[in-house]
Amino acid sequence: MLVHFVTDEPSKIPAIRAMLEPRHSVDSRLLGAADSQISNGVLMVDADLREAARVEQIRLVLRDLRSVTERLFVVQSHVQHMVAQAFALGATSVVRSSREVVVKLAQIEVAEKAAKTGIAVASPENADGAAAFASMFAAIQSGKSINLSDAESATSQIVDAIAQNGLGAWLDNVRRYHEGTFQHCLLVTGVAVGFALDLRFAGPDVKRLGMAATLHDIGKGRIPLSILDKPGRLDPAEDEIMKRHPVLGYELLKDLPGISPEVLDGIRHHHEYLDGSGYPDALTAPKISDLVRLLTISDIFSALIERRPYKPAMSRHDAYKVLCGMDGKLEVSLVKAFRNVALEA
Ligand SMILES: [Fe+2]
Ligand SMILES: [Fe+2]
Question: Is this structure's pTM higher than 0.85?
Fold first, then answer.
């Protein structure tokens, strides 16, 4: 495969050549140098996205190379606003390390082959489903519709990972390697799947709850990044905008062929409470399905144990105590059943 490597640091070029050749042919270029138009291959960008001047140069390079459809950004510090900056510049994938570059290029090759032959191939390297999440959010942020098979593949990978290694290992891994909305959605899906497995749900029911969790906050892809990634408490006006995400997600997916009504219900209603104090429809207990009740518990617990740059993660024990204090809003018997998942799984 032809890789167009764009960097602000000439010393990175020999290392990239050594790593990728001879499997891939590398065409390197320095930011600021004259560029020619190309249309095939993969674009790989490794530059400091914190500097406005660099970002502007990348924008110019990408304008020349806009017909290259695969745009891979290396973001060494995987904080959410750098990831968001990469996607805002047109990245189709964001990776953190050289090893991930090799894996991602292999995945692109596999996907290209599958597209040509019509045969889908699973990629074992992508074990945590994060790439499928990134692809869904990138699609939503750039105004495209999402591919349900990305959500299905992320969900199955998470079900397999938790069935094999348990929820504790999953939570530790996700909190170590992912930030912001990705981290949140991966945690909610893991916790919901762990809950369903602990309740001994049948396979299709585990999958359905997992899909609802994977997609529950997809509407956040349409919330401005300045609000989504704000390092601190939202003001009332920002909070109002943030609270639109369940309806935005529902509207984005409601006409998608193959989407199940239960999953749509989960997307729209995961912030509803049994006492009617939730949003967006202020539903009360009789209108709130079992799937939504399970999802809401998983969502709140995951939000509390998230690791964020500006606030320490709450312990699983303390997060469970918060759930126990939400009498009237959550179903008491389900919160009791969740104890095992919260504290021991
Ligand atoms: Fe939400
Ligand atoms: Fe959420």
Answer: no
CA of 186 to the centre of ligand 1 (A): 13
Task: Report how far ligand 2's centroid is from the alpha carbon of 132 (Å).
Answer: 17
The half-sphere exposure of 312 on its side-chain side, counting CA atoms within 13 A, is 4
Residuewise pLDDT in 10s, the chain (345 residues) = 888 888 888 888 888 888 888 778 888 888 877 666 666 788 888 888 888 888 888 888 877 777 777 888 888 765 666 777 787 777 877 887 766 777 677 767 766 655 554 433 333 334 457 767 777 777 787 777 788 888 898 899 899 889 888 999 888 878 776 667 878 999 999 999 999 999 999 999 999 999 999 999 999 988 887 888 777 889 999 999 999 999 999 999 999 999 999 999 999 999 999 999 999 999 999 999 999 999 999 999 999 999 876 778 899 999 999 999 998 999 999 999 999 999 986
Contact of 300 with 323, CB cutoff 8 Å: yes
Cα distances from 44 to residues 5, 37, 80, 170, in angstroms, run 5, 15, 19, 29
Ligand lying closest to the C-alpha of residue 280: 1
The letter for the amino acid at 180 is G
Cα–ligand 2 centroid distance for 169 (angstroms)? 21
Q: Which of 6, 127, 146, 126 is nearest to 64 (CA)?
A: 6
- Measure the CA–CA gap between 162 and 170, rounded to whole angstroms: 7
- Which tokens in the block code for residue 152? 């299905």
